[in-house]
Amino acid sequence: MTVRRGEVFGLLGPNGAGKTTTVEILEGYRARTDGEVSVLGHDPARRSIELRRQIGIVLQSGGIYSHITPREALAHWASFYPAPRDVEEVLDLAGLREAADVRSRKLSGGQLRRLDFALALVGDPELIFLDEPTTGFDPEARRAAWETVRSLRELGKTILLTTHYLDEAQELADRVAIVKDGRVLAIGPPRELGVGGAAGAERYRVVYRRDGEGELIELETGDPTALLAELTTRALAEGWRLQELSVGRPSLEDVYLELTADG
Amino acid sequence: MAETLLLGWRQYRLERKMFWRNPSAAFFNFLLPLLFLAAGGAILSGSQHDLNRLVPSIAGMSVMSTTFTALAYNTVFLRERGVLKRIRGTPMPTLSYFAGVAANAVTNTVIQIAIVIVAGRVFFGIGWPHQWLSLVVFVLAGVISLSALGVAFAHVIPNFESTAAYVNAAFLPVVFVSFYVFDSSSAPGFLRTIAEALPLKPLIAGLSGAMVTGSGLAHNLDELAVIALWGVFGIYLAVRGFSWERSGA
């Protein structure tokens, strides 16, 4: 598995799939038991300061000192890095302007999460790890976080994102890997994963409704040309129409559920 | 190296700022020994002999509460909250971080000892310390040893909710046994043995020599050796078992 510079890469999988373990090995928190790992040309297990200067980490459950404000925390964190971003700019980017001078024990859950983002960004890292960055967010906060991720990609940053939200992977990731039990089951751009998928063959989903009858009919095929020809021929011959016809590829969700199903 | 020092200094500044913003920590680590001193001083005000024993005892207790208690609390809190893990993911050098944290504890200890010395001079009829060198050496040895033991002790505390119970279960018996044995010449032999083997009683004895009786370093080498042994033991355990993150998280 390789993550390219400048892309948003999503690690997608059910709880316990090994997403956080993978990310923690890359971040240098855990030792790998086997295999080879390289992060920006460094072995993360060595925990070199040069590497840590180039990465930003948003932990799943990272705390912050209770008695300092976001502005103070960011100023302190910025001092760890050789070329940090401007603290005021990061406050704006993370949406913390209004909470900038509130002691962190009085911040809301959403504001704390934004502070997580801000602390990971203040060092102006090349590579950013986001471990389930929007878990527990309300829809508005999620949108805001997504905007932040998009703006980071526009700045040319590389982002490794773990999530168990399919829509998040679909919205943000250039490529995703679906993992389960520590194995990569499929890898590729989210919109193309449905095509090849694990099955290997192209699959399409055809949905339509016969007029006059209530139910949506859903068919799957590897050969949509033949199926559509057959359907239209029958419809014309029998005098009914295909309503709400759509031809689609299986969604990321279909692929995901199929791949991660037990057994 | 310059950068390591600079970052250590920044961490120290942050620790100082946070210390004064946290009233309950400031109270327990700081005011409590001084309240003991005031209350003890009021009760024992009739007897200079008793006051001479009270003041170094409180000084020893101050060293323990500003280092052992404070660091055990802090380490558990920061570990359980995920602050340590977050710091570990940054380029902040481990050495700078711990230098800043330790310097913060030392500052508290120095302020406390200074207050106790001034109070001893002004209110309790004890002059200025007689043996400054001995005073500095014993405070320093106590700080290093009890800081390390505090961090090491944090390893056995499973979660933040139980910190107070664990810390008090260690702190209070040590304080009581040490105070009692230091004060009473009729303490039972086994209790005396225990107290002599723990770090606080030797610390109080050394401080008493420096502050009250004028017996210098040369007369308290055994006491210093006990504290140093605890220090070696504490540093070994503190480093060996150190955990940056909550277990099972």
What keywords describe this structure?
heterodimer; A: alpha/beta; Rossmann fold; Dna Ligase, domain 1; three-stranded antiparallel beta sheet; elongated; B: 249 residues; mainly alpha; 10 helices
Please outline what is shown here.
The complex is a heterodimer of chains A (263) and B (249). Chain A has ten helices and nine strands.
Write a structural description:
The complex is a heterodimer of chains A (263) and B (249). Chain A is of the alpha/beta class and 263 residues long. Chain A has 10 helices and 9 strands. In chain A, the strands form 2 sheets. Chain A has a 6-stranded mixed sheet, sandwiched between helices. A 3-stranded antiparallel sheet of chain A has the order 8-7-9, with helices on one face. In chain A, helix 6 links the parallel strand 3 (127-131) and strand 4 (158-163). In chain A, 33% of the residues are buried. Mean pLDDT of chain A is 86; it is low at 195-200. Chain B is mainly α and 249 residues long. Chain B is globular and about 55 Å long. Chains A and B meet through helix 2 and helix 3 of A and helix 1, helix 3 and helix 4 of B.
SSE blueprint and pairings:
The complex is a heterodimer of chains A (263) and B (249).
Chain A: E1 8-12, H1 19-27, H2 49-54, E2 55-58, H3 70-78, H4 87-93, H5 109-121, E3 127-131, H6 139-154, E4 158-163, H7 166-172, E5 175-180, E6 183-188, H8 190-196, E7 204-210, E8 216-221, H9 224-238, E9 242-248, H10 252-260
Helix pairs in contact in A: 3-4
Chain B: H1 2-21, H2 23-43, H3 48-81, H4 83-88, H5 94-122, H6 132-154, H7 163-183, H8 189-197, H9 200-213, H10 221-240
pLDDT averaged residue by residue of chain A: 86
Q: Residue ranges of chain B: pLDDT <50 for 5 or more in a row?
A: none
Strand order of the largest sheet of chain A: 2-3-4-1-5-6
List the secondary-structure elements of chain A in sequence, H or E: EHHEHHHEHEHEEHEEHEH
Distance between the termini of chain A: 24 Å
Rounded to the nearest angstrom, the distance between the terminal CA atoms of chain B is 34 Å
Structural class of chain B: mainly alpha
Number of domains of chain B: 1
Determine the structural class of chain A based on helices, strands and strand pairing.
alpha/beta
**Overall average pLDDT of chain B:** 91
Q: Could you estimate the helical fraction of the residues of chain A in percent?
A: 25-40%
Q: What order do the helices and strands of chain B follow?
A: HHHHHHHHHH
- The named CATH superfamily of the largest domain in chain A: P-loop containing nucleotide triphosphate hydrolases
